[in-house]
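FAQ: What does the model actually see?

It sees only this:
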Amino acid sequence: MMVTSKLKSYLLKNTSILPLAIFRMAFGFLLCFSLFRFLYNGWIEDCYTNPNFHFTYQFFDWIRPFNVTTMYTIVIICALSALLIGLGFLYRTATIVFFFTFTYLELIEKSWYLNHYYFVSLVAFLLILVPANRNFSIDIKLFPKIKLNKTPNWTVDIFKLQLVTVYFFGGVAKLKHDWLFNAQPLNIWLKARTDIPIIGSLFEYDITPYIFSWSGMLYDLIIPFLLWTKKTRPIAYFFVVIFHVLTHILFNIGMFPWVMIFGSLIFITQQEWKSIFSFITFKFKGNEIKTYAPFKTPKFILSFLAFFFTFQILFPLRHHLLTDNLLWTENGFRFSWNVMLMEKNGYTEFSIIDKNSTKHWVEYPSSRLSIVQEKQMSFQPDMIWQYAKYLEKIYCEKGYKNLEIYVNSKVSLNGRASQTFIEPKKNLLEIKQIDDIYNCVTKLQN
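And it is asked to produce this:
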């Protein structure tokens, strides 16, 4: 009870709103840029409107894309709401709109899953709960009486905790034999990047992938604690920038490095920002702003956040109950901060048999799926099952009602020889629940 009381007292204690406001601006402007980049690259068509079939998430089968005009409209609304978050204009409405539109876009297509999409949705949800617009925003120009200098500790620390979960579980996920003792998949990836100027020649040495593997694991496990500690925070943030710029140069992982660099700004305190501003001769006036209406913490919020972060801690561990080899089966892989753990390639072909007429067809996924969909489906069991159900629907519409579908699937993991992935004699249409497909995955041969 005493510990709980002390924790509650700390969480409700006031701190400067400046770190929260800067975090809001960094998040909003970065996501606005990312979404307009998405538009510019023509990915709306590639991801949402060109495919005839979408791999949906479990429990979210009802989420579907609209026509191309509507999808462009939704992405533009999402981008503009991110801009409004950054500006702190109509903040509460903007955060709610951003959360729902971004999460909707994320849930349409499973083959495009990325960890930082999930992270962005979580942060957007948490932003709805906090008064991040009540200083350094357009809203305080329109409504001066909402200005705040101070905000409760919990409104800042929840974003720190969310970043800690990403880093910590990313590090725990690397405590695997392949990563530590085979330096895989970095051994494969770095040997393919020897053409990079200046540092490329280092990747020719056998020891280099092991240095990167162990350094990456230690970085993920240690950096959140160094960021949280005042004495080590400057050097820690320096390493954050170096680490993520390097990953951006070496690996094609989209906006993730920039999300982590800008997200880690939340650890920088008001006093540290004042020192930074003084160094660049910018006069900081945060303490001169009058506070009109203190922020009142809703009674339910601390209990809700306790539940939220308990889930964030437990959910990434679910794979221990689901599978004995996460990288091979991927049962529990998504939404668990498994970042850059494997190089996996697969090949699939589907055999369709009409038991009434004994007719037989061979289906190659490349004829119906996009390149990204085919690649991701080829080594993910749940997606293989979903595609088999899609083929069943297509052939049933042609008048074939009594079907069997089998898959010839070969998968290679982290440089191993390709091996049979799904039991080839299993009729996939006998599987009624998506989770049951994992029982048909073969054992990985080392």
